[in-house]
Amino acid sequence: MIPKNHPRAKSLLVREKLVAGYEKGLVAKEGLIAHGRGEAFDYLLGEKTSKNAEKAIKTAALSLISAKSPVISVNGNVASLCAKEIIQLAKIINAKIEVNLFYANQKRKKRIARILKINGAKKVLGVDSKSAKKIPKLDSARRIVDTSGIYSADVILVPLEDGDRTLMLKKFGKKVITFDLNPLSRTAQTADITIVDDISRGMRKLIQICRKLKKSKVKQHNSFDNKRNLVEAVKEIKKNLEKRAIHA
Ligand code: PTJ
Q: Which domains are seen in the chain, by residue range?
């Protein structure tokens, strides 16, 4: 039981949610390690949404709203941390939802699809192998995608992704948006738009902004340089480290 007044209560609750996801068979063992790495970066980033993350979220929202066939790619960690939010976002931006795993496992795929459906998804792609196609030149299990989903999408939200697939999706002509707390990861460096924020926190903001932009019918894109924004994220880490060192 986490005391309510614990200074890191929110992060610890997110950790518990992920562990519960693991116990329900949604998260891969490796997903626990990936989360630990994310937590470490989140700690260095001050466990809040920074200005650079807000900028990336706004740019991502504009791209998702104006996309012709957007897709949200869901893995074990994402499903266990924000299943409800994925459905909310998909409804606002009219996106398809596709389960796509790095550590492929048909049972886990089905469990993830079930959780998404329990949370309100009408259709979940990525489970039926009859409509599967391969992304060329990619070795990992993530190359298997749905013909009417990732394969034919123009904009894809791929949170907590691996670098190889991000690169291949881009070579395949897709616009890639990701959530990744590590601004130095290959995914962060390769994606078109990298939101350096915890997915549980950042997804809620992305939904809010998409909702607002849809109402205001804004279509115009702001100027955005992903590499420059990542440099801002690294500066944020440096600033927080210095602040902590002074108070140590
Ligand atoms: O469910 P599967 O089989 O598809 O596997 C999913 C994982 C996440 C295990 C798999 O994609 C993987 O191994 O990913 P990586 O290569 O460890 O990359 C995950 C990235 O996400 C790392 O850079 C982490 O810092 C980052 N990350 C972890 N937790 C979060 C996060 N970013 C945002 N929010 C988080 N909560």
A: 51-234 (3.40.50.12640)
Protein residue with its CA nearest to atom 4 in ligand 1: 101
Pocket of ligand 1 (CB under 6 A): 28, 30-31, 34-35, 37-38, 41, 75-77, 101-103, 160, 162, 179-182, 185, 198-199
Task: Kindly report the pTM of this predicted structure.
Answer: 0.95
Dihedral-angle region of residue 131 (phi above 0 means left; psi in -120 to 50 means alpha; beta otherwise): alpha
**pLDDT tens digits for range 178-198:** 999 999 999 999 999 999 999
* d(CA 31, ligand 1 centre) in Å: 6
57: tokens are 């979220």
3-state DSSP call for residue 3? Answer: coil
What angle do helix axes 76-93 and 29-44 make, rounded to 10 degrees? 70
- How does 73-84 read in b/e, with b if 16+ C-beta sit within 10 Å? bbbbbbbbbbbe
Q: Using one digit for the tens of pLDDT, what is the confidence trace for 184-238?
A: 999 999 999 999 999 999 999 999 999 999 888 776 667 899 999 999 999 999 9
